């Protein structure tokens, strides 16, 4: 008996040693080969593939200093641990090229002064202690350092957008140059400093921006990485020539084109023939002079006397996830975006031979169009014509080498001229010559036209209002779409995969009238029918058992 007890004890100890050894091996393997399982649909608790690529591409040490106060309010006590967990994951994928340090600056006047110069201030927070509301000053900043380059996140109050901010800062400090985004101005479209002010602010987090007035330029500067052409109402042949030659030289352009001129207060619109339509058709995209209406739409608010009414508005087309292109990083992770008073696009196949065409966004199959006469009143009952319901292309991207619009044409000459100066020593009035009072504009011949361009990318959307100040800011998918397009044109998909996870709108799927009716009847009668069938089944089962003599 005693031998059996000793044998059992020995086996038990051996089992503990074996299990401990297995756990130690697994722990060592997990430390060297990190992985985790994140079961959320958009992987909210795992760093994105885009971040992994950025970290894997680091060729030198990047220092991250987290300036967090140790004493934080109770509702932020877990924030420091969450940041630490995320940064540990960053460090794993950086393969030794990331140094992370946590510092508490509180009580160190010299460090606090340095942080003020760096742009990391104290954050004043509300704290309730001993039934009293008090204020406390804490530090919640992060600094990213690489050589002489420095980027800061002044305050981190949650982890929702922290990955995007941190990865973008790492990318910015390790980049050799800051790219410039140009906005075409002076042609009747939205102005960068007024109607596009919010977009400008968002773009300036990672790029520099500038107005491009091509009337004053000999050519569009090649240091502009992306040119945004938004809603131009007038363009000369000379202007189109400069845009065309910018593209031929490898420049990338976003075209946001309107086919109506409208008064948004009175909801009155008149047709507009876009001055750049012939140029776009040459590249292979036609912006149709129509407006799209869709059963998948956003709710719009309008002023009616003293009241504000909010109604589903078919002219505000809501593009949902299933109608975005799966093969393009600009949109393949977007949940939704809204295009107000937008025009459909048509791909001209014979013009796009050898060009990669990606239909980025489409309306649903329950969309139709209105043309010629634009009745935009939200109180109207909009009904499609028979057979007019189908999907429409709303945004398209083109990649490849394009042929110049002016390949078989003479380049429009540039005009230069100035007023004649009075001769020295003579009165200005005496110098006037009725025959030639001014030195008129003279034609300056352009250099040879670039007939076939370099590899480049273009994007066309049949609307420019979706990124302006006049359109509601709650449609965050619009901002994300625009910034994704800028990133794709400049740095590839390095940030797109992170930013797109911000959009959390999950609209209901649009279905046909027949499907709606069927679902309504199922909801009304389905439960009753199921209960009735269950009762009948029980009745016949009991009856059958009774006949067989089985006690129930």
Question: How would you explain this protein's 3D organization?
Answer:
- There is one protein chain.
- The protein has 552 residues and is α+β, with helices and mostly antiparallel strands.
- It is built from eleven helices and 24 strands.
- The strands form eight sheets. The protein has a seven-stranded mixed sheet with strand order 8-7-9-10-24-21-19, with helices on both faces.
- Strand 3 (123-129) and strand 4 (132-138) form a beta hairpin.
- Helix 2 (49-56) crosses helix 3 (79-94).
- Residues 423-432 and 434-438 have low confidence and may be disordered.
State the shape. globular
Main sheet record = 7 strands, mixed
* Radius of gyration, whole Å: 32 Å
Number of distinct helices: 11
CATH overall fold name of the largest domain: Rossmann fold
Task: Provide the CATH top-level class of the largest domain.
Answer: Alpha Beta
For the biggest β-sheet, the strand order reads: 8-7-9-10-24-21-19
Structural class label:
alpha+beta
**Number of discrete domains:** 2
Low-confidence stretches: 423-432, 434-438
Beta strand %: 25-35%
Q: How many angstroms does the end-to-end distance come to? A: 55 Å
- Helix content class: 25-40%
> How many beta-strand elements?
24
Mean pLDDT: 83
CATH architecture of the largest domain: 3-Layer(aba) Sandwich
């Amino acid at each position: 008996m005693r031998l059996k007890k000793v044998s059992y004890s020995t086996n038990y100890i051996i089992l503990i040693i074996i299990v401990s050894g297995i756990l130690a091996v697994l722990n060592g393997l997990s430390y060297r080969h990190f992985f985790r399982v994140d079961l959320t649909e958009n992987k909210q608790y795992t760093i994105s593939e885009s971040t992994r690529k950025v970290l894997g591409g680091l060729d030198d040490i990047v220092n991250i200093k987290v300036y967090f106060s140790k004493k934080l309010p109770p509702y932020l006590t877990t924030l420091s641990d969450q940041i630490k967990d995320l940064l540990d994951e960053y460090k794993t994928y950086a393969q030794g090229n990331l140094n992370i340090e946590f510092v508490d600056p509180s009580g160190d006047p010299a460090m606090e002064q340095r942080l003020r110069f760096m742009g990391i201030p104290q954050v004043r927070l509300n704290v309730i202690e001993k039934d009293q509301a008090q204020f406390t000053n804490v530090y919640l900043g992060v600094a990213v350092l690489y050589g002489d380059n420095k980027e800061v996140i002044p305050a981190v109050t949650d982890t929702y957008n922290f990955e995007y901010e941190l990865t973008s800062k790492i990318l910015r400090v390790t980049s050799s140059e800051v790219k410039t985004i140009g906005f075409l101005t002076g042609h009747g479209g939205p102005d960068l400093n007024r109607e596009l002010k919010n977009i400008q602010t968002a773009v300036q987090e990672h790029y520099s921006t500038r107005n491009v007035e091509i009337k004053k330029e000999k050519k569009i500067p090649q240091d502009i990485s992306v040119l945004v052409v938004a809603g131009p109402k007038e363009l000369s042949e000379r202007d189109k020539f400069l845009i065309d030659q910018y593209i031929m030289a490898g420049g990338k352009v976003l075209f946001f084109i309107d086919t109506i001129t409208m008064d948004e207060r009175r909801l009155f619109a008149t047709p507009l023939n876009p001055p750049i339509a012939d140029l776009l058709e040459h590249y292979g995209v036609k912006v149709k002079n129509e407006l799209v209406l869709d059963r998948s739409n956003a709710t719009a608010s309008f002023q009616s006397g003293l009241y504000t009414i909010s109604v589903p508005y078919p002219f505000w087309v809501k593009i949902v996830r299933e109608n975005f292109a799966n093969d393009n990083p600009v949109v393949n992770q977007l949940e939704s975006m809204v295009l107000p008073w937008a025009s459909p696009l048509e791909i001209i196949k014979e013009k796009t031979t050898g060009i990669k065409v990606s239909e980025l966004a489409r309306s649903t199959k329950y969309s139709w169009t209105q043309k010629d006469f634009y009745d935009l009143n939200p109180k109207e009952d909009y009904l499609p014509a028979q057979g007019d319901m189908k999907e429409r292309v709303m945004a398209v991207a083109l990649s490849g080498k394009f042929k110049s619009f002016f390949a078989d044409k003479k380049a429009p000459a540039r005009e230069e001229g100035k007023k004649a100066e009075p001769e020295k020593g003579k009165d200005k009035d005496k110098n006037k010559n009725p025959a030639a009072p001014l030195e008129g504009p003279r034609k300056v011949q352009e250099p040879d036209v670039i007939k076939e361009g370099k590899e480049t990318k273009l994007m066309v959307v049949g609307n420019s209002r979706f990124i302006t100040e006049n359109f509601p800011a709650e449609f965050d998918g619009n901002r994300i779409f625009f910034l994704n397009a800028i990133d794709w044109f400049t740095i590839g998909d390095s940030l797109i995969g992170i930013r797109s996870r911000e959009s959390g709108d999950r609209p209901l799927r649009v279905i046909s009238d027949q499907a709606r009716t069927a679902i309504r009847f199922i909801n009304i009668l389905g439960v009753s029918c199921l209960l009735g069938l269950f009762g009948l089944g029980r009745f016949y089962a009991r009856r059958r058992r009774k006949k067989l003599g089985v006690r129930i």
